[in-house]
Amino acid sequence: TSGVNGVCAVRVGRRELLASASADGTVRVWDPVIGVVEQILRGHTSWVNGVCAVRVGQRELLASASADGTVQVWDPGSGVVVQVVEGYPSEVRGVCAVRVGQRELLASASADGTVWVWDPESGVVVQVLQGRTSGVNGVCAVRVGQRELLASAGADGTVWVWDPESDVVMQVLQGHTSWVNGVCAVPAGQRELLASAGADGTVRVWDPGTGVAVQVLQGHTSWVNGVCAVRVAQRELLASASDDRTVRVWDPGIAQPLFVIPTPSPALTVAQFGISSLIVGLVTGVLTVSLDQR
């Protein structure tokens, strides 16, 4: 009944379903092919800002980050809460899975400028990444060499790349002139690049290992709220969602978008689902876009 701030695919049994995080305080689990809601996950007391899938043992669970200062971990099939992490001094704006050693952990982005890394099975916080003086709006894992690092999007216009195991800042990426609202990893041959969504209307593509800006993607006329990697016909592309009521799909090495998808209301987030669909979280709901016709 309010804006959709985050979307992700999640596996339930042998099926791939869709989870959506809303400002109405709920997480919904859908069959996006037929548009049916299978679960409504209630428990947060404020906006839900993001969702991600995380593997715990043999199960794929679902984590949700909320403005109520908690991250909750759910069984998406039954709708049962299996873990709640509390204690954040401010709202939690994003969450992602990250591999540290042999474990898949969760990283959560907080408005107080910290990123917490914790075990989704036990709820134990194993690391708090500190140093920012402004809020963290989003977080994602990105591979640099043989390691999985964390990238965090800051309200100060920078992206920090961290080692989640040692709390060391590896790179500070500067170039945006306003808030960075989201980040994502983008496959590029044998390596991964990093894309960032800016309130300055640009998408920037970086080499997370060196900190060098590879490309600045311009064309949006308002805030860019989210970015995601998209694989279309064997090509690794990038999608961006904006307040200007468009989703743009880019080749990350080319400055002009390959195509522009109009949306009926401002686009808050975007994710690929399956091999041929984009899921867009809007101010007014969830939009499924088929990429087959392109």
Provide an overview of this structure.
This protein is mainly β and 294 residues long. It is 0% helix and 63% strand. It is built from no helices and 27 strands. It has strands at 4-12, 15-22, 26-31, 36-42, 48-56, 59-66, 71-74, 81-85, 92-100, 103-110, 115-118, 125-129, 136-144, 147-154, 158-163, 168-174, 180-188, 191-198, 203-206, 213-217, 224-232, 235-242, 246-250, 257-262, 267-273, 277-282, 285-290. The chain has a four-stranded antiparallel beta sheet with strand order 1-2-3-4, with no helix packed on it. The chain has a four-stranded antiparallel beta sheet with strand order 5-6-7-8, with no helix packed on it. A four-stranded antiparallel beta sheet has the order 9-10-11-12, with no helix packed on it. Strand 1 and strand 2 form a beta hairpin. The two termini are 31 Å apart. 49% of the residues are buried.
Low-confidence stretches: none
Q: State the shape.
A: globular
Radius of gyration: 17 Å
Q: Give helix and strand order, one letter per element, not per position.
A: EEEEEEEEEEEEEEEEEEEEEEEEEEE
Classification by helices and strands: mainly beta
Number of helices: 0
Largest sheet: 4 strands, antiparallel
Order of adjacent strands in the largest pleated sheet: 1-2-3-4
- What level of helicity do the residues show? under 10%
Count of β-strands: 27
Q: How large is the share of residues in beta strands?
A: over 45%
End-to-end distance: 31 Å
Overall average pLDDT: 95
